[in-house]
UniProtKB/TrEMBL annotation:
A Pfam family annotated for this UniProt entry: Glyco_transf_4
Statement: the UniProt record of this protein carries the keyword Transferase: yes
Ranges where the Glycosyl transferase family domain occurs: 171-298
Protein's name according to its UniProt entry: Glycosyltransferase
UniProt KW Glycosyltransferase keyword: yes
Alphabetically ordered keywords of this record: Glycosyltransferase, Transferase
Broad EC category: transferase
Domain Glycosyltransferase subfamily 4-like N-terminal: 13-162
InterPro entries for the chain: Glyco_trans_1, Glyco_trans_4-like_N
């Protein structure tokens, strides 16, 4: 069997990180190739460090000649391979797999959308009409089932718990500025601009000793920087950019925040859980299926700042929540178990 991961990009998002985790597990035992639809190569070095073969199709638009050239390049590379299964990730990864099946040899397609929301009505319709071309759609929880997807196989995302484990015990009493960690793409769905609102709300509550460590890149970075400057909040923000090693930031921070507008199943939540880092998140996507107010703080965006205040004021309780979450998800969301479930699915469809 040959596993072909078709990813929209090799950017630094959670979907791409999951592709990396799955490819790392399969590469030593099964021929595995990763194809990026776009030129985005943020994670290329990490794939190469694991001896994972990756290629870029360099599709710049689905309305020009680069699309056809990309599908041709895919065919040239995999044409001689046998027992191929496509695992298409995100919308554009699926379209490449679909076009390959239409133009060349038919390959079984396993599809993971990695999100609970598609804003484009046309994309939702295309996914609905092309359901017969996909063998299985993977969803992260029962709540992630959508009308435009096939009846989904539930497989959660996973991480290496041992690798992300923090050895030192987090201090229950905060004697330095409280560090909120934002870890993810600086784009609309992640709602990074909300951090400026949250900072002002904390200040109005009389809380002045706090910092936002912002780890990630995206198209809202410039606007975020502009708002921070216009509000005079520079002393409360560290804009750190993309980091390939997130463990030091999980260790140094006091709380992870996800003020997202929509999500699939964020990898960063599982990463934070593995590091026993308190979490505040909005109840979007599959988040409510494994986060609740017993193991984290789940809050609508209108009350999000209140959860942040509560976390600061009773940090001992916040740390107790992390112990509950860790014990609940360590087995189910460990990458070894998640990969084995994927592997069984690949073998069933090939």
């Amino acid at each position: 069997m040959t596993i072909i991961h078709l990813s929209s990009s090799l950017g630094g998002g959670g979907a791409e990180q999951m592709v990396l985790q799955l490819a790392k597990k399969s590469t030593p035992h099964i021929k595995t190739l990763v194809f990026s639809v776009s030129k985005d190569n943020t994670l290329e070095a990490q794939f190469k460090a694991q001896n994972i073969e990756c290629h870029f199709l360099n599709v710049t638009s689905f309305k020009n000649g680069t699309l056809i050239q990309g599908v041709k390049k895919l065919h040239e590379i995999i044409n001689s391979l046998e027992d191929v299964v496509f695992h298409s990730h995100q919308y554009h990864g699926f379209l490449i797999g679909l076009l390959y099946n239409l133009f060349y040899k038919k390959k079984p397609i396993v599809f993971t959308l990695h999100s609970s929301t598609i804003e484009s009505a046309s994309r939702r319709l295309i996914l609905f009409l092309t359901k017969p071309f996909r063998k299985v759609d993977i969803i992260f929880s029962s709540n992630a089932q959508k009308w435009f997807l096939k009846k989904g196989k539930i497989i959660p995302n996973g991480v290496d718990f041992d690798q992300l484990s923090i050895q030192k015990t987090r201090e229950q009493e905060i004697t330095k500025p409280f560090v909120f960690l934002f870890l993810g793409r600086l784009s609309d769905e992640k709602n990074p601009l909300y951090m400026v609102t949250a900072a002002n709300q904390l200040l109005r509550n009389g809380i002045t000793s706090f910092i936002f460590d912002v780890v990630g890149e995206g198209n809202q970075k410039i606007e975020l920087l502009r708002l921070i400057s216009s509000e005079g909040l520079e002393n409360h923000f560290n804009i750190l950019g993309f980091k390939s090693n997130i463990k030091p930031y999980l260790e140094a921070s006091n709380c992870l925040i996800l003020p997202s507008k929509w999500e699939g199943m964020p990898m960063v939540i599982i990463e934070a859980a593995a590091a026993k880092l308190p979490i505040i998140a909005t109840p979007v996507g599959s988040i409510p299926d494994f986060l609740n107010n017993e193991n984290a703080y789940v809050s609508e965006i209108e009350e999000f700042h209140n959860a942040m205040v509560t976390c600061i004021q009773d940090y001992k309780k916040a740390l107790l929540k992390t112990e509950v979450l860790y014990s609940e998800i360590k087995s189910k969301y460990n990458i070894d178990n998640v990969y084995q479930t994927h592997l069984k699915l690949y073998k069933c469809v090939v």
